[in-house]
Design goal:
By secondary structure, the protein is an alpha+beta fold. The protein has 14 helices and 17 strands. The strands form five sheets. Strands 1, 2, 3, 4, 5, 6, 7 and 8 form an eight-stranded antiparallel beta sheet that branches. A three-stranded antiparallel beta sheet has the order 11-12-14. The chain has a two-stranded parallel sheet with strand order 9-10. Strand 3 (116-123) and strand 4 (126-132) form a beta hairpin. Helix 9 (322-348) packs antiparallel against helix 11 (360-374) and helix 11 packs antiparallel against helix 13. The radius of gyration is 42 Å and the shape is rod-shaped. The N and C termini lie far apart (87 Å).
Length: 475
Amino acid sequence: MRMVLWLVTILAFLGISSSLLSGMGGDSSHMLNMVHDITTNNIGSLCYHNTYKSIKFQLETEIFRGSQEKAELVRDFLMDSKIYQNYDLSTILIQNLMERDKDIKAARVITFLPTHTIQVESELGKLVVSNSSVDYSVDQEPWYIDRFSSISWRTEKFISPHFSPGSWTFPYFSCAARAWLVSYTLPLFSSNNASNLIGLFVMDISVSSLDINQCETSSSPQSDQRNIIHTFYNTHKCHNTSKCIFQAGHGWVRGGYTCQCREGFYPATSKNGFNGSLVEVAYSDSYSHGSSTYSLLYICIPCSAGCQSCQDDTPCMAEYNWSFRLVLLSISMFCTLSSLITILLVYNYRRVKVFKYSSPTFLSITLMGCAVMYTEMVVIYPVLSTILCVLTKWTRHLGFCITYTALLMKTWRVNLTYRVKSAHKLKLTDKQLLQWMLPVFLIMVIYLATWTISDPPQAVDVILLSGRKFSQCSY
C-alpha cells in the first residue's frame, strides 16, 4: 500500500512539473501577440473584468537576488518580532525597505482572519501608504495564496508552486499600475505552528524597463544582459535574406529589432533596415489575411552578379564586348580544329616521302601541342575564376612544352646525323627520341602541379574608372 502511495505521489509531481514546463515554454507567438495587444492598448475589456494579465514564461529572477534577500530578511523579522499586525511598525519597516531598494515598486503585509492589508507603493518618486481591510480584494491578485491554495492553483500563478522560502510570480501586466510587474511572495507562519499560514509579505518589482530580444542568441549584445528577456530568442520575423539586429531600450514591445539585409542583398524599399514592428504586423497579415505586403516590402533582393554589397540593382561587372570575344574564340577554335585535321592528314599520307622523312610521329606531336595552346582562348572566354586561371596556365605551358620539345628532338636528331665523322651510320629512331622527350614532359607536369598546389593563380577584380570591375588572372 505504501508503495502505491509513493507511486501516486511521484506521478502527481511529474504531472505538475510537466504542466509547469509547458506553461513556461508556452506558445511564444501567442505570448508575443498578448504583449503586443497590451502595449498597443488593444486589451478590450481586460482591465474592466480583471486586475492583471499574466504571461507564463520564466523570467530570469536572478537579477533581483539583492531585493529577494532583503525581502526575506524583512519577512523573518516580521515573524520573529510578531509586528505584522502593528500598522505603524509594519509601515516603517516597509518604507525603510523601499527607500533602500529603488527596484521595488510596492510592498505589502497581508494578514488573515480577518484579512488586513498594509501596502506601501512608490508613485512619482513618493511612497504612498494604504491601509485596507474591506475595499481591497487581495484574492484576485496574481501574488495571492492562502492555506487552501492547491499546488495546481499555485502553478497557474507562480514559477514554482513550492515556496522555499518564497516564490516568484510569472510576469504580469498590472492594470492598476499600468506596468509590467513581477512579485515575490513570502508566506508568514505562526511561530508555534509552521504549517499555519497567518499572512503574506509581498513585494512587487517593475520589469517594464526590460527589453524583449527576439533575435538570435549570437546577435545579442554582450553588455547589460541584465536588461534583456531571453525567452523569445529567435522568434523574429526577418526573412532569410536579412538578419535581425537587436535594438535596446524598447521595453516590452513585439518587434524591438531591425531587419538588415545580409551581404549580397539590398532592400526592396529605399531604407537599409526594416522596422521590426512593421515586419511583425506584415508577417501576421500575410498569414491571417493573405496580404502580400511582407513579400513585397520586407524581403531583400540579391545584388547583381559580382557585387559583394549594393544599394540597388546597378551592375557591378563591366560589360564585355561579346562580339569581339566571339570572333577571337572562333579564330582559336578554327586553329584548333585545323591542327587536329592536319594530324589526320599526316597520318593518312604518312607513307608519302615528304611526310615520311619529316617523321610523322613528331609532326603529329607538334600539331597536338599547337592544338593544346589554342584551347587557351576557350578557357578564358567565360568570366574568369580561379579554376579557369589554373587551366589557362596549364594549357599554355603544356602546349608550349609539347610543341617545342618535339621540334627540339627532331632538330637534335638531324644535328647528330650530320655531325657524325665515322663511316658508321648513326640511326636514332622515333622511339628513342620519345624516351628522351618523356622526362622533359614529366618535369613540366611536376612544375605545373607544384605551382598549382603552392601558389595557384587567382581571379582578381580590376576596378575601372567608372566603378565597375572585371576579373583578371593574377600570377
